[in-house]
Amino acid sequence: MKLNNNHIFGKLRIKVVLILFFFLSINNISAQCKPQLWSFQAGEELNYDIVYNWGFIWVDAGKVEFKAKKEILEGREVFHFSGTGISLPKHDWFFKVRDYFDSWADVSDLKPIKHVRNTSEGKYKADEKYKFDHLNQKIYSEVWNSDKARKLDTLKLPSCVFDVMTAVYYARTFDLENYKENQKIPLSMIIDNDIYNLYGRYLGKEMIKTRDKKNINCLKFSIKLIEGTMFQGGEDLQVWISDDSNHVPILIEAKVLVGSVKAYFKDSKNLKYSAKY
Questions:
Q1: pLDDT digits over 28-53, tens only?
Q2: 54: which of 85, 156, 158, 159 is 20 to 30 A away, CA to CA?
Q3: Phi (first) and psi of residue 233, to 5 degrees
Q4: DSSP line for 107-126
Q5: Domain regions of the chain by residue span
Q6: DSSP-based three-state secondary structure for 75
Q7: 220 near 238, Cβ under 8 Å?
Q8: Residue 269 and residue 271: Cα distance in Å, rounded?
Q9: Using CA atoms, how far apart are residues 260 and 255, in angstroms rounded to an integer?
Q10: How far apart are CA 91 and CA 14, in angstroms?
């Protein structure tokens, strides 16, 4: 099979969404949606290298960065979570990726308050804004992309629904000690003006060797997207998170049509708990 650059990087529209979904597989939704363990703190930064793998071919394709901080929004203290995904400059000439995700969440329970997505992936562009009204159980949305006209909408806000970025951090707050192998774990999330019901599965413990040859004890999860979502039925993602109090994703693998996309943990700043990875 001939593999050309457009194919490789077409599959690497990192759609940070794809790379973000891996975090969701560690979530266990309770009736109250209350965090159980605070595994992060304001000031934390996580950095990842995005790599395309096909047989013996390895291509460094991009970078993903996550940041958490506290700030004031409309007179209240909130968490501001940001996620950025970019292609490497050497690849920009034929497929440029610039993805930005920002979310603001309640500091006590991480319920989403506001979410903004700005995506530029080759010729594809997208702009999304959501405001969460928990009192009236409404989501006010403004959504546009290259394939659809701009749309203003009001959606019903069910309990325990998250946007991409709040889900990333909320997922890391759960106590994983009582998980059983093959246990299914549900999650609901809004994206592209639709609410998707996803689920993951806990696969047990495994040691992962990083790109710089460090061995890290991890918990392994897989996630399958429910048939009928924006991904093809049976899409698999796998994630290995550090088996410690930080719950940092160490390796993420997403299968694509040919090969796979992998996100390798690179480095971090201001972790809540001391770690050597």
A1: 344 457 888 899 999 999 999 999 88
A2: 85
A3: -55, 140
A4: TTT--EEEEEEEEEETTEEE
A5: 5-267
A6: coil
A7: yes
A8: 6
A9: 4
A10: 13
